[in-house]
Amino acid sequence: MSTAFLNGAFQRPIRTAPLNSFIPTQETRVAELLSANPDYDGRGTTVAVLDTGCDLRAAGLLKTSTGENKYVDFIDATGGGDIDMSATVTPHADATFTSPITKRTLTVPPNLNTIRVGATRLFTHLPSSSKERILSQRKKSFLHHHTQTLTQLQKQIDNLDSSMSNHTSVKKDKTTLLEEVKAMADDYDDPGPLLDVISWKGEDGEWKVIVDVANNQDLTNSTPVSPYKINNDVSDLGFGSEVTYCVQVYEDGDVVSIVTDAGSHGTHVAGIIGANFEGEEDKNGVASGSRILAIKIGDGRLDSAETGKGLVRALIAAKKENCDLVNLSYGESYWQADSGKVAETFSDAVRKWGMSVFTSAGNNGPAFSTLGSPGCLSAVVCVGAYVSPQMMEAQYSILPTEDVSETSYSFSSRGPTPDGFMPTLCAPGGAIAAIPRHTLQSKAQYHGTSMSSPNACGVAACVISALKQNSNIKLNPIELRRALENSAIAVTSSDPWAQGAGLINAVGAVEYAKEHHGKVGQNLEFEVSIPSRDSSRGLYLRDAAEVVQGQQTYNVKVKPLFEHGINANERSPEQLAELLETEIEFDLKATADWLTTPKKIALLSGVSKEQSFGLSVDTSSLPTGAHFARVQGFVSGEENRGPLFSLPVTVIVPEVTPEPPKKTVELKAGIPNRRFLSAPSSAEWATIKLKTGAMKSGPNSIILHSVPSSTGSTPHSFHETKKMLTLREHSTATVNVPVRGDATFELCLQLSWLSNPAGVEVDVEIEYHSLGVRGKAPVAEGSGLRIGSANSFVTLTLNSHFRSEHCKPTASLTHIFRSIRPSSSTVKSGNPDLDVLHPSNADLVRDSNAVGELIHSTTLNYNFDVSPENGDDKISVVPRVASLHWQLYDSPLESLIWRLKDSNDSILQYGGLIHDPPPTSLPKGSYKIEMLLRHSDTKLLDTLKNLPLQLRISLPKPLTCNIHTQRNSASSSTAVKPLPSSYIRQGYFKDLYIQAPEVPKSVKIGDALIGSITLDTNVNSVSKIPLVWECPDQIIKSKDDEEKVELTEEEKDEMYEKSIIDLKIKNLKKLRKENSERYLDFAEPLLESHPTSIPILLETLEYSYSNSSNSSNSSNLSTSLKRVTDLIDENELSTYFGKSNRVNEDGDRKKEEEKIEEKMKEMREGLRVALLYGIKEGEDNFKDQVVRLKNWVTSESDFKSDEHKRIYKKIIIDYEKEMGRGGEAFKMARERLKSNEKEDWVEFIGELEGMEHLKRNYEERVEWKFPAENVLL
């Protein structure tokens, strides 16, 4: 099928140029174009590469063929490299200052006045390959020093003089130290170094930035870098990373962006588009003369996944730099094609901003309806992956063979979308191109539609370059796409669902554009849709119910899209002329005789510019299988122009039978074998058996890909089955796949040419199964079984429809789903440098001062606590915004990203819209989640200020749900044994009752427990059903048996007085925390009226201690201490707590004894705190003071306050050091780090011989655990 489709205008040319084994250019006729005209190499074009970012020093990506710098600029659109630089300092006369962030003393270049300071973590900016290598190197170095330290410690123990009087205690202490140091290797963790960053405005008015990559705080000789576009400054992050970075400065210096790549993907893509190797032209990219705007949209915080924020900012930046072309080799699943805020921005980039966007089709083939987004969008050029025999030989070292021909890669995603849309065209999907230096290699062979898109984009750059130079023709995105589609070369051995219009053709596109430029309607886009099918962009008939109707009629709407700006009522004279003068008569032609249309349609001028025509589809004579055709609109009398609009039509005629016949299929390399079957109404899964006989050449690798339906109700990835099978002689492979009742499922088999291209025959048997529980929903779509909070079980009725089915059910609950609401929200305007959506080109024509639309953000703050049932355990948590999850390009939001923090503000995890991060294991404590939502509509953001967040919490172990066969046992707590294996005979029914377990202690009101029931463990993947239990509240303990105590009037008065005092103390604590000057105004009268109240005295002691750092307040501390100690008789306390048998009788004596005990405990607590606060390190009596304290404190648990525990542990560590027990002190110091303590005790580690490596590691760990830097979201 030619892309002129009816007349085969473009035929495959005879090869005249040498084969480029690195980046294929001959297949697309670029080599031919450049052989005749070397200057058509993309010069004069700028391509925005939206990807993981690029290595600015990678091979072949330094200069263009004309000697210009290859990169226009390099921008991190994700915000992941942003550093808060709002803090300012003025260096001292000696060019030093103490950073308010890291508290380090920095030496800076002389003669600097006000400078900005910040800090960033090295690992934040490293791609995973470099980070892993550095982690490995640093650990190896750590262990080397650690081994030396252990050896030295062991020598010290071995050399101890046994005649020493304290030999035993010294040896014991040194042995303790040795064991603790040994254990530190097991505790090793490496969060990486924290780097200081400074910036200032130079005399030239440009920003200068220094990152302390040497991490030595001496920046005197460091070379500052300016934003890349100014001087093309590039530097290296050091530490052996080989990672190149540049900087950007935003918001008048408040933000510095460290820009690095997040992986090798983006550099490889840039190399395909525009690599230039002087003197080695065989290694060049497709358009070596093009310039590149590198934009990082792969967020390193999300494992280089894209975000809406990155994508939208990238398109804004591309327009700002007047890019001709945009390449995006990324993509995700979608729910609704051609919808969503990000999708809208891509459409605007093409239609309103005048940039052509090329994007990958996706790597989810070979089954139908697997296109990803944004490849499914109408406005972009969606590129599938093509491979030629020459590519197979050059890039994969395949031996020459007649078994393979040019085709589409098996992985290349196929159309149609659920609404019938198709990929645009195809291009070579493999290349050997440059990759970043931090990978420690210069080039690599990658394949994927990620490679086909930049190849096509490079071809487009050459086409644009040729037209500019040869004919001074500038094509808008619509005209460029039309030239590429209508000149593409059909690949006869590939199908249209993979290749679209065909293989891109550089020479043909140039010739087509030159011939037809300027003709009426040539630069005008036409929207074609079927209103009765939700305005679908094509016609896709797949299920039997639609196909068996025979002849069907549809109304097709054609609408020209005039881009006249946001205020079309104020058109310019040129725009009004276009509107009134565009009248086109079209000839309608169908490419298949089972489609019937009128012969013509006329589009009249004016505002009422859409027109409709009828389409008849007769499927009655079509054989089983897939059929494709187009309805095309040609300008009357100008058929050689090719169609100006087209409606793709795909019809699947499925096999309709309850027992599909066995078939023998011959699999040929590179050609999918498709079988479409209408699943019976009650079918839930199918068993596929592949059997082989004798093989002339084996074994063979077979791709099995099954998609149960294509209704668009869920992304295909939710329920597809895709496996790579190795088939040997006389072997059988069995695969179970989900199906959907009354829907057509595809079974696609494709022989992989990579391992063995020799063809093979395979017997295929298909057998339907059902247990009658899922209805017509695939397993991933089913809402599943739900046990209500007021029920103890749920009933499940099994029914075997097709044959006797094996049944061995098990049920368990594995997770808690907990919903939390935000505690607060803040709204902020976006970055004016990055977040202003440009006005359309049409608006700028009408008003050159037209302004764009600013994007805003809302930050939502969530709080939650973790309390494992066993306090030492951890709980795995995955946050998710359930109502928006799995949507990115089609999301109603521009962007969403969140981060999880602990109580110290240490960042534990990031997450976004489309992918779940790995579960985060959390110990007991308080946590918070900050979520950033972005959109240009503040009203929409306001509606989301109470957006619920779901926490997916793993249970310590699965909770088994008992399965009963009788209702009466399920409604009681009777335990049952697991049900044995059994068979349900065909036509029989069987009831199962799934009983809820006991409510776990960790469950709260509103929680749901989530798990599944598997009906047959032998076919787990297709017989599993979601199980949800809406948990009731915890069991309420009865108070009937509690002892009731009658109080006297005097006791009631005492309780009343105590409650008043407690309330006043609570108020004092609040004033103390607020540093209120009113504290003493409230405290002094309270002390006067209650001079012997221990709680009041302790509260005022806390106030005095918290202010004791001020020398003028030191006497207040002494006074407070004296008040407490004078009130307490230690001898009396010792006598009381030394008694082994105190009175414990009924009646009045018992009450009196309890009062005495309460008073004594209160006094003991007061004494402990007073003694604790009275100890001063460095004083002569320090040891004596600690001994006195230890008489009353056996361990830190004797204190109630965490702050008291912290002070106590610090004092005891210092005491052990004073006593010469360094090993014991070291052991306690390690425990403090584990218990989330922050103190300067790390210095103590450094004081020990050979411990410098430990000190460095623990300093970095403390800096990570207690971050001082403000990390921007």
Brief characterization of the structure:
This protein is an alpha+beta fold and 1273 residues long.
Notes on the protein architecture:
This protein has 1273 residues and is of the alpha+beta class. Strands 1, 2, 13, 16, 17, 18, 19 and 20 form an 8-stranded mixed β-sheet that branches. Strands 40-58-57-43-53-48-51 form a 7-stranded mixed β-sheet, with no helix packed on it. Helix 5 packs parallel to helix 9 (449-471) and helix 23 packs antiparallel against helix 24. It is globular, with a radius of gyration of 37 Å. Residues 801-998 form the Tripeptidyl peptidase II second Ig-like domain.
List the helices and strands and how they pair.
Layout: H1 30-36, E1 46-51, E2 71-76, E3 82-84, E4 87-89, E5 96-98, E6 105-107, E7 115-121, H2 128-158, H3 167-186, E8 194-201, E9 207-211, H4 228-231, E10 235-236, E11 244-250, E12 255-259, H5 265-274, E13 291-296, E14 298-299, E15 305-306, H6 308-320, E16 325-328, H7 341-351, E17 356-360, E18 381-387, H8 389-396, E19 407-408, E20 425-428, E21 430-434, E22 443-447, H9 449-471, H10 477-487, H11 496-499, H12 506-516, E23 525-529, E24 539-541, H13 544-547, E25 551-561, H14 573-581, E26 584-590, E27 595-596, E28 600-603, E29 611-618, E30 625-635, E31 645-653, E32 663-667, E33 673-678, E34 685-692, E35 700-707, E36 721-727, E37 732-738, E38 744-751, E39 760-769, E40 785-787, E41 793-799, E42 805-807, E43 810-820, E44 824-829, E45 836-837, H15 841-846, E46 853-854, E47 856-866, E48 875-880, E49 895-902, E50 907-911, E51 920-922, E52 925-935, H16 938-943, E53 949-960, E54 963-964, H17 967-970, E55 982-984, E56 989-995, E57 1008-1014, E58 1024-1030, H18 1049-1073, H19 1079-1089, H20 1094-1106, H21 1114-1127, H22 1130-1138, ...
Parallel strand pairs: 1-13, 1-16, 2-13, 16-17, 17-18, 18-20, 24-31, 40-58
Antiparallel strand pairs: 3-12, 4-7, 5-6, 7-8, 8-9, 10-11, 11-12, 14-15, 18-19, 21-22, 23-25, 25-29, 26-28, 26-30, 27-29, 30-31, 32-39, 33-38, 34-37, 34-39, 35-36, 35-38, 41-56, 42-55, 43-53, 43-57, 44-47, 45-46, 47-52, 48-51, 48-53, 49-50, 49-52, 54-56, 57-58
Helix pairs in contact: 2-3, 3-26, 5-9, 6-7, 9-12, 10-12, 18-19, 18-20, 20-21, 20-23, 21-23, 22-23, 23-24, 25-26
